[in-house]
Structure to design on (453 residues):
């Protein structure tokens, strides 16, 4: 069964090199984590699964990688500068700071239980920067708090470079930064995190149809690409809509402590295009936007069939990559009773997500004949460019199997003395621990079958 607590995953991540505490040797920094040798691989594979679904499998979405640092005017007109904040309260007794909307009881301190709580005040979530030789400490730029807004401002650039008819989308994966009051849940809520967001530009007359379409598409991706059981996922409509939204639904995963958001699908209507376009008064903007006198670009779309010129509506899909990784690890984690007091921990990841695709293990350490054959198999598998292939030359076959069970390697290839006699090796499968004997020449094809399951 999946992990019972997030602490199971925290321990595994540290032990096996998935995630470390950022700045750990100096006591760490709240909400900051470093991704180790296997964490970077799992994150990369989740990104690739998303990119393949959004870009490589479709003709109507283009990719983008926008700058992390943006002109402050961008965030002024998006509404972030004035309104992107959380309600902060402080405990007068112990000094703890908390988000009021996340407190267990808004009349008592979560830390010490005191009722001496300050009145809430707005706490700016964006991280401001002072850049340039003459900035003198004044904030004139921001680290982006999301990838979405930099997508809207590139709408015309992408459309001019790669013409599309509506509907079409722009997708990007990248870092975002938020000055969170209280980071929590391991990598669930952090100050530096990664988003995979897609903005789908549609005719206003079709917005509800495409919002429903993307709800179905994204839910199917969580099940089919990440291997999350459908019964552990649910749609949760927003009870209170954000000022920009016409409709908003979250996909929630059942974490050990309950359901929580892993992705949002939003109908943002014409708020974003209306906020950033030049010549706002030339359009009938449905959303409530700031008057913009600084934009230099008209962000409207001219329909070649109807001749209409209008500001597209936006359907957004926004996934937290770090949260996706956490959900995947929790769901894949199993502790199995092997009998006789023995247990094993295994990550039953989908093979395409596994950090290591295959491990080649000589039965005995530093035996030249075994090592030469093993190196030759590794070289052939690496030429296939299917992902990370590891050689284990420690000589302890049992420990090697257990280590690769814990990091989710779908198959181990054992080279033994029989290999030198008949040219066969043993494939040991992670999930079942079953073993099959095959010819060395058949290994590349068999591994490819396993990895692409």
């Amino acid at each position: 069964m999946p992990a019972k607590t997030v602490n199971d995953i925290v321990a595994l991540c540290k032990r096996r090199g998935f995630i470390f505490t950022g700045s750990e040797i100096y006591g760490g920094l709240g909400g900051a984590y470093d991704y180790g040798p296997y964490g970077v691989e799992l994150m990369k594979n989740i990104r690739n699964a998303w990119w393949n679904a959004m870009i490589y499998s479709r003709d109507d979405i283009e990719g983008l990688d926008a700058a992390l640092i943006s002109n402050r005017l961008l965030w002024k007109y998006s509404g972030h500068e004035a309104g992107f904040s959380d309600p902060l309260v402080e405990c007068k007794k112990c000094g703890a700071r908390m988000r009021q909307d996340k407190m267990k009881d808004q009349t008592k301190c979560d830390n010490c239980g005191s009722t001496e709580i300050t009145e809430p005040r707005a706490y700016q979530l964006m991280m401001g920067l002072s850049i340039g030789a003459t900035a003198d400490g004044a904030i004139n730029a921001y680290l982006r708090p999301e990838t979405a807004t930099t997508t809207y401002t590139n709408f015309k650039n992408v459309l001019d470079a790669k013409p599309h008819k509506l509907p079409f989308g722009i997708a990007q994966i990248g870092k975002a930064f938020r000055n969170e009051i209280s980071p929590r849940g391991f990598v669930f809520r952090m100050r530096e995190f990664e988003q995979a967001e897609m903005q789908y530009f549609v005719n206003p007359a079709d917005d509800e149809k495409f919002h429903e379409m993307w709800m179905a598409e994204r839910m199917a991706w969580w099940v089919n690409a990440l291997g999350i059981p459908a019964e552990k996922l649910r749609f949760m409509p927003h009870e209170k809509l954000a000022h920009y939204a016409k409709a908003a639904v979250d996909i929630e995963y059942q974490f050990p402590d309950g359901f929580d958001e892993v992705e949002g699908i939003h109908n943002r209507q014409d708020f974003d295009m209306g906020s950033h376009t030049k010549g706002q008064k030339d359009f009938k903007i449905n959303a409530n936007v700031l008057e913009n006198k600084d934009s230099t670009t008209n962000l409207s779309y001219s329909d070649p069939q109807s001749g209409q010129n209008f500001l597209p509506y936006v359907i957004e899909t926004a996934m937290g990559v770090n949260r996706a990784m956490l959900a995947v690890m929790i769901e894949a984690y199993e502790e199995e009773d092997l009998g006789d007091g023995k247990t094993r921990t295994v990550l039953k990841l989908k093979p395409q997500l596994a950090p290591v695709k295959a491990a080649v293990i000589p039965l005995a350490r530093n035996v030249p004949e075994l090592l030469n054959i093993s190196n030759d198999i590794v070289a052939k598998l690496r030429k296939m460019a299917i992902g990370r292939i590891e050689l284990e030359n420690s000589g302890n076959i049992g420990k090697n199997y257990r280590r690769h069970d814990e990091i989710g390697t779908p198959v181990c290839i054992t080279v033994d003395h029989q290999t030198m006699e008949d040219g066969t090796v043993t494939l040991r499968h992670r999930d079942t621990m079953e073993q099959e004997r095959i010819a060395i020449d058949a290994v590349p094809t068999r591994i490819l079958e396993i990895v692409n399951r």
